[in-house]
Structures are given as C-alpha cells and as structure tokens.
Amino acid sequence: MATDTPSPPVLCLNGDLVPEAEATLSPFDHGVTVGDGVFETLRTFGPQIFAWSRHHDRLSHSATVMGLMPVGSDVLRGWAERVVQANKHPHSRVRVTLTGGPSAPSTARSGSAVTVLITATPLQPPLAETKVITVPWTRNERSALAGLKTTSYGENVRALTRAHEHGATEALFANTNDQLCEGTGTNIFLVRDSALYTPPLTSGCLAGVTRALVIELAEQEGIQVHQDPLRFTALEEAEEAFLTSTTRSVQGIRQVNERLLPTCNGEITRTLSAAFARLVEHDLDP
pTM of the full predicted structure? Predict the structure, then answer.
C-alpha cells in the first residue's frame, strides 16, 4: 500500500521559502562568526502562532539595542505564517532569528543588512513536572546583553548540558549578587504562604512573554505577586515552584537538585496553568 511521503522541511531565509537542504548562509555571517544576533522562540496552537505581538515587540527591542535593523511586524509575521503553513506540523516551535549579516571576520560589524532566518519544527507537549538543578555560574545583571534575547548562548548550552547529565531538564542561575535569576530558557516562580514570588527584571532575567502573562493571570485570580530580589537559597525554602516559557507554558517543579519539593503542581500552579489554558482558547495574541 502506498503511503504519503512527508514533504521536506522548508524555512524562510530573507523572505524566501527555501527547502532546508538547499538553504545557504554566508560563512562570514556575523551571527555565525561572533554570535551577533537576536531571536525569538514562539509556538503555535494548531496552525496559529501564539502571542505574536509580544514576541515581536521583544525582538524589536533586542534588535534595536544591538544596533540591528528591526523588521516590521506585518512582514515578519507573514513570513513566519508561510513557514508554519508549508511545514504542516500539528503544533510548531517557530524560531525567528535576525543576525548582523555578512561581515568581515572580526568583532566589528561591517555590513548593514540583517540576515533573517525563520524555522518551524515539530513541538511536543511539555512534561507535567520536571527536575531542575542549580549551577555555579552566574548571570551578569550589568552585562551589555542583560535582558536581551541574543544568539550568544554558549553559557546556556554548557549549563543545560550539565542539567541533562544530572537527569534534569533545566539549569537555574544566580546573578552576581547571589540572587535567584532565571533558567537557560525559562523564568522561575516560587510559592510561599499562598503568594507568588519571582525575580524582578533588575535581577538580569529575561522579560519572558509567558512570565508576563502568568503575572497578569495571577493578579486576575487574586493571587498576590511579589517581584522582589530573592536569595538563591530561596529555592530550598519554597513550598511549591514552577517554570514558565513559551514551550513549557506553566510547568511544575518536582525536584531541585536532590531536594524533593513538598508540593508539585499544587493549588497555585494548577490555578495558573488552567488560567493560561483558558487564555489560549480565547485569545491567541493577548
């Protein structure tokens, strides 16, 4: 019996749809040689991209601070939707990347045109709960890249590798003041005395799109939210904790290092996870 052959993956390179196997990037692209680029990871629910406007706003901010020319929302969204439609995944992880474009092989940027790369790959449902570890390396809240989503991800790669070696799916950083900051690709929330605690943006953490939505939902649910500096050791005192990110949504934490939390997916985590699910059902661009 004949079976349908899956179509080869397609991506968008500078506005053109190109089969993945035929896509070419200059070996002198500044994103390749020095990590000079910014990006956003989005997800779809079915064929629809979620929270496009918030992601584009953050991408434009990162690009502007990095001195890269932002691409307009309507143009970029149209390209992203074409990639999603061409690949036909049930749910997609969409990555939009802007780099400094071809340049001389040095730190200084010599070109002006950005490279735009958009991909859509299959997205699997996240685990309901997970283990995380802490790592000895720090986020620098005074870094030139603090709060930006850039392609300079070397420290995240190293930290996440350590997490996987310890049977965890995420690694958590302190900042230089030994305050809780963020994960390699997540924001962190703690629950104490029926209130929610999360590091402030001044800690150096990324202004996560899901983080912001969860804070808004918590306030709507009457849950008190504190965005105050937290000692790194606050993880050891948390009654309940969860991660947020585009691909994880709201994910309960079962274990931090070797410590099992007293509660995993407790009342507040469940409340916010359900509220997030309702939001997705009613508004795909909140």
Answer: 0.95
